[in-house]
Amino acid sequence: MSKKILLSGVKPTGLLHVGNYFGAIKQFVDFQDEYETIIFIADLHAITTVQDKDLLSKQIYDIAVDYMACGLDPEKALIFKQSDIPEVSELAWYFNCITTVPYLERAHAYKDAEAKGREVNMGVFDYPILMAADILIQDADVVPVGKDQKQHIEYARDTAEKFNRVFNTDIFKLPKEMIVESLAVVPGIDGQKMSKSYGNVIPLFAEHDEVKSLVMRIPTDSKGVDEEKNPEDMVLYQIHKIFNGSEELFNSYKKGLSYKEAKEKLIEDILAFSEPFRKRRAELHGNRDYVLDVLKKGGERAKARVEAKMEKVRNAVGVKLY
What is the pLDDT of residues 161-171, one digit of tens each? Predict the structure, then answer.
């Protein structure tokens, strides 16, 4: 029995943080044995905000290195650049031609920008359709998303259904969202959800001095060492338990551990956890030929996967004459 296809895209928008790892990457690594795993670098999507050639090229390379350093294995997972599959953009055009403006105006990203009085470029406005093409062209069965991203999969399903109906075909299967309830919502150093937009992240590959500086900024109350505390109410513990969920640590936070000692222990645990990732990242980053070869071969494999489907699409819409 063939494995189901799991697909996800990652925008190359800067170095990874702890929240990225526990919220998504760890699951991709865990799933790569269970599913036929396809992970693409969404460089076309990134151009909606990153419009600097050198920066974009650097971030594409860095994100490929980062994901492999975290355990994504090119022998198990298909890793490629979105832009190496021009058929994705072609398919998005066919989808655009059957999609109405009011339908796209309901997209969360567009509505949020409009509510803030910002003008958006067409890339942002049309983002859901390009994403639908990414998903549908690879015959994805499941797409891991957070609860706040479920709409992306709804757009892909709606688009698949409409294309099949309009052109009287059954080319596209309907993907399902995979909302992993156990995904960690990692708090940032200020207690909000860890996010680059909040400036509260702990970079996954940070060295000692940076980790120490960030951990020391985590707020604490004025309770003494011997006072009873509820660790679950403490931002410091909420972060710490992600790296060390032992009962012993919980009890020490409850009573008998000073905040200074707790922060020192957290720094130690973060660095111990990230050490193999940092070591692997340094090895990969210095082996540019290998990393680019992974992306190039991945792109060739991904492109080969979609050729037959796109021939069916062209035939269905009527542009295939020979």
Answer: 999 999 999 99
User: In whole angstroms, what is the distance from residue 218 CA to residue 187 CA?
Assistant: 11
Question: Which option is the CATH number for 196-281: 3.40.50.300, 1.10.240.10, 1.20.1250.20, 1.10.10.10?
Answer: 1.10.240.10
What the block records as the tokens of 3 is: 């494995």
Alpha helices in the chain (DSSP H): 18-20, 26-31, 43-46, 53-69, 86-96, 101-104, 108-115, 122-125, 127-137, 150-166, 208-215, 235-243, 247-254, 259-285, 288-317
Query: For the domain 5-184+288-317, what is the CATH code?
Result: 3.40.50.620
Confidence of residue 233 (pLDDT cuts 50, 70, 90): very high
Pull the structure tokens for residue 44. 């076309």
The sign of the CA dihedral 291, 292, 293, 297 is positive
Decide: 5 and 38 in contact? Cβ < 8 Å: yes
The secondary element (H helix, E strand) that includes residue 320 is: none
Which residue matches tokens 């071969």? 297
Q: Please give the single-letter amino acid code of residue 138.
A: Q
Pairing assessment for the beta strands 176-178 and 142-144 based on DSSP bridges: parallel
Domain ranges of the chain: 5-184+288-317, 196-281
pLDDT category of residue 10 using cuts at 50, 70 and 90:
very high
- Distance between CA atoms of 98 and 80, rounded to whole angstroms? 28
Q: What angle do CA 85, 87, 92 make, to 5 degrees?
A: 115
For 78, 296, 303, the CA distances from 299, given in Å and listed in that order, are 9, 5, 6
User: What are 159's two structure tokens?
Assistant: 């688009």
Whole-model pTM? 0.91
Write down the pLDDT at residue 182: 53
For 174-225, the pLDDT digits (tens) are: 999 987 665 557 899 999 989 988 999 999 999 999 999 999 999 999 998 9
pLDDT for res 146: 73
Q: Is the pLDDT of residue 298 over 90?
A: yes
